[in-house]
Amino acid sequence: MQFKDIVGQKDIINRLTSVIDSGRVSHAQLILGSEPDGSLQMAWAYMQYLCCEHRVHHSEGPLRADSCGECPSCKKIASLMHPDLHFIFPNPPNGSDSVSANDYMKEFFDFMLNTKALGTLNDFNDSLSGDVKTSIIRERDAANLVEVLNMKPYEGGWRMVVVWKPSRMKREAANELLKTLEEPLPQTLILMVDDSDEQLLPTIKSRVQTLRLKGAGTEKVESNAEFAAMLVGWLRMLFKLKMKELSGQVDKMAALNREQQKQFLLYAQSVMRGCFLNTAAGVEVHLGSGDEKFDAQFPKMITVNNIALIEEALDDAVFAIERNAYAKIALMELSFRMSKALKKR
Predict the structure, then answer these.
(1) Sheet with 85-88, side-by-side order of all strands
(2) In terms of pLDDT, which residue wins out, 162 or 345?
């Protein structure tokens, strides 16, 4: 998982890569975001960047840096096969007091890989035919984790742990982890991932650094009648790609002032993100375009195959507008990139 695969979190990603590059990595962090919005993806990409042997830094574009995706460490983390990468997560009892996350690790890895870490706890429990109400993180899970962290790293680098849904952690499990959080071993990173910290025990909450993601994936895309009509007209031109009509549509977009152009592109980005979450995770999206046929059919066009390309194209266009680029050229280039991306569904 690379940062470029995460939708709509570029500012937070840039802050994270800057902190990692500076060597000021906090040993225990909590990533919060409404599911499914990429919070588990963020933890995955964070660890890949942390361990990457050849980090890539960009002089231009929305992301300042990313993992290379090609070194041995990147490939191991991307496939969830790195020996120093560990997970604990809520798991159903399955009729036994001795069950733990270790008993469901293969299923959890399949869940992460198949959903690209955009699935929900309900999705995971459905795959196990389990009951989400009884899925918890037990004292045994925490004890297993502490035991792993006290072992020497296999590859001599970071020990990394993701605790998914710490709000489902029993008090006994939290107490088991407290010493590790208070007195971390060198080169140890614990990333907790949840959609809320309201149910998290105060003893845990006070010992972690909290990172809140922006743009919760489940929120309704705000209706904007003018922007919605302009977006629908533009997208239809992208499918036809008739230059005269497309040029006329781009002229309308370029006639907006720069702040309006930026807001339109951010609106388009929010629509694309909502459509992707609809396709990838079944999240209901309300486009509010006023065109029922478009609202029903368009979300299917945004898939895992093109969302990164679309997000990058829109980010680049915002970047250009903010730096006073000639609007029509920037928007026409965006149009060509969007047209190409939409055909990759």
Answers:
(1) 85-88, 159-164, 188-194, 28-32, 209-212
(2) 162
The answer to whether residues 159 and 19 belong to one domain is yes
Residues 174 and 242 in one domain: no
Supply the pLDDT for residue 53.
Answer: 93
CA–CA separation, 240 and 338 (whole Å)? 12
The mean per-residue pLDDT over the stretch 288-309 comes to: 80
The runs of H, that is alpha helices, within the chain are 10-22, 39-51, 72-78, 105-115, 121-128, 139-149, 171-182, 202-205, 225-240, 243-254, 258-281, 292-297, 307-322, 327-342
What tokens were used for 4?
């470029």
Per DSSP, what are the bridge partners of residue 91?
Answer: 136
User: Is residue 47 predicted with pLDDT exceeding 90?
Assistant: yes
Query: Span 212-229, mean pLDDT?
Result: 59
Residue 255: domain span: 225-342
User: Within a 10 A sphere around the Cβ of 319, how many other Cβ atoms?
Assistant: 16
Listed in sequence order, the residues at least 6 apart from 272 whose beta carbon sits closer than 8 Å to its beta carbon are 7, 302, 307, 310, 311, 314
Complete DSSP assignment for 192-225: EEES-STTS-HHHHTTSEEEEPSS-TTSPPPP-H
Measure the CA–CA gap between 61 and 318, rounded to whole angstroms. 10
Cα–Cα distance measured from residue 269 to residue 215, given in angstroms and rounded to the nearest whole number? 11
Shared domain for 182 and 247, answered yes or no, is no
The structure tokens listed for 92 are 């159903």
Gap between the Cα atoms of 312 and 36, Å rounded:
20
Q: Is residue 115 part of a domain?
A: yes
Indicate whether 191 and 256 sit together in one domain. no
pTM for the whole thing?
Answer: 0.66
**CB within 8 Å of 178: residues ≥ 6 apart:** 203, 204, 207
Distance CA 234, CA 200 (A): 45
First to last CA, the chain: 20
